[in-house]
Amino acid sequence: MSTHSETVSSIYQQIVDRNPGENEFHQALYEVLETLSPVLEKQPEYAKNKIIERLCEPERQIIFRVPWEDDNGEIQINRGYRIGFNSALGPYKGGLRFHPSVKIGTMKFLAFEQTFKNALTGLPIGSGKGGSDFDPKGKSDNEVMRFCQSFMTALYRHLGENTDVPAGDIGVGSREIGYLFGQYKRITQRYESGVITGKSPQWGGTWIRHKATGYGAVFFCEEMVRAVHNEELKDKVAVVSGSGNVATYAMEKLRVIGAKVIACSDSSGVIIDRNGIDVDTVIHIKEVERARIKTYLDFHHDAEYIDGGNIWDIPCDIALPCATQNELQQADAITLVKNGCIAVCEGANMPSTPDAIKVFQQEGIAFGPGKAANAGGVASSALEMQHNATHGSGFEYSEERLHEIMNHIHRDCCDTAEEFGEPHNYVLGANIAGFRRVANAMLAFGII
Ligand code: GLU
To answer: What residues make up the catalytic site (predicted)?
Structure first.
């Protein structure tokens, strides 16, 4: 072991000891730290100034009570979180997740990932994440509104367009963003559009934001498949896990490019449609009916539904995990390889386990990690902030701008991987390229 990898291992151990039980945070940390020793070797100023140790400690962590009243008049209590992880490159920026699985370790892993992701966009955004263990599933519109109002009542004092700018994530879409922004505006008496992103284009949002994470993941995948395999996505068979915002627009863009998406999923099961998944039906089910994906069968009688099925068992050329963390494990990776899959591109945050990633890397599968491949969402959020800073008179950014940003991120990861002697190792490329950008800003600011 080189001294640098010993340094990194001991930093990892210290952080694990300081944050007991936060398994997802440990995993995200491990995946990044594992790749950083070569950059410590090349640029000793990072180790000397304890940049890794500083970067792994969130700048601030806010935890608060969220009481609200359900439709039966009963009081419910949830826990709210907002982590400001790093502000070296701009205000804290990252989404809010409302899901029963949310814990402090979930928030920290997401905020930590966001640090590298946001840096890779090249835009002036720091990193943060927040959310709650509230489950919007099965709640009435009024219940969701009351919850969002209570959440914002506790959080608003910590936000600001130059301080901390939330957006959506799992369980937080344009409906929730509307309620959150409405309450912020009501409490502060300020129409500060840039305090939250993912807004409706009717009141300060941009139309591309809604589609940007999914579209961006496909743009990244397209470049990666060209670079690694010298092939095109056209006519490839794809499977996309999930059926939320990221999965939906990834499927839409894949269809436009000429790939055939034959399966998608939700936490209950998998839909297979050999004619190609009809994205408009998925949007209708998820955004209008707010129902389970098996409802797809009511619209397409020749599709198939596998209750509790595993989407990674379906043979495909391209796999896009767009649901949630750790949804693709080692056994799934082995199945994908066996079935001839050539590329895996992550639309979700940390959907592949470290063991699964090792399988892809050993087998020469092109693998795009989420912090690079799904950065299109937050990049469009940064563009929305720029648009808001001009009070709406500025240029509204287009899909071409998103495409340019994704191509730029892809190139940056590729060049960095090559610089460190590991061509096509996008994990290493993304981690080092993102790290360097944040680290250089932190060095410039002195000991803060
Ligand atoms: N939640 C998204 C992500 O994981 C987007 C965050 C944002 O737009 O601020 O990157």
So the answer is: 129
**Residue 209: what residue type?**
R
pLDDT per position as a tens digit, 380-394: 999 999 999 998 776
The amino acid at 382: A
Active centre residues (catalytic): 129
The reply to whether CATH 1.20.1730.10 applies to domain 211-373 is: no
Q: What b-and-e string marks burial along 35-49, b requiring 16 or more CB atoms within 10 Å of the CB?
A: bbbbbbbeeeebbee
Mean pLDDT of the chain: 96
- Does 211-373 match 60-188 at the fold level? yes
Q: Is residue 126 within 8 Å of 93, Cβ to Cβ? A: yes
Residue spans per domain, the chain: 3-56, 60-188, 211-373
Q: What are phi and psi of 28, to 5 degrees?
A: -65, -40
**CA 343 – ligand 1 centroid, Å:** 23
Q: What is the best residue among 83, 213, 325, 350 to mutate for testing ligand 1's pocket, by most ligand atoms within 8 Å of CB? A: 213
Rounded CA gap, 25 and 297, in Å? 38
C-alpha distance from residue 124 to each of 108, 164, 231, 341, 381 (Å):
21, 12, 34, 36, 11
* 389 contacts: CB under 8 Å, gap ≥ 6: 161, 194
Q: Please list, residue by residue across 147-166, b when 16 or more beta carbons sit within 10 angstroms of its beta carbon and e when fewer do.
A: bbbbbbbbbbebbbbeebbb
60-188 folds as Rossmann fold (3.40.50)
Q: What is the pLDDT of residue 223?
A: 98
Q: Tally Cβ neighbours within 10 Å of residue 78.
A: 20
Q: Whose CA is nearest to atom 8 of ligand 1?
A: 378
Q: Output the pTM of the full model.
A: 0.97
Output the six-digit token pair for 403: 């495409």
Pocket perturbation via mutation, ligand 1, pick of 169, 210, 384, 406 by most ligand atoms within 8 A of CB = 169
Integer Cα distance of 148 and 142 in angstroms = 10
pLDDT tens for residues 36-58?
Answer: 999 999 999 999 999 999 999 99
CA of 94 to the centre of ligand 1 (A): 5
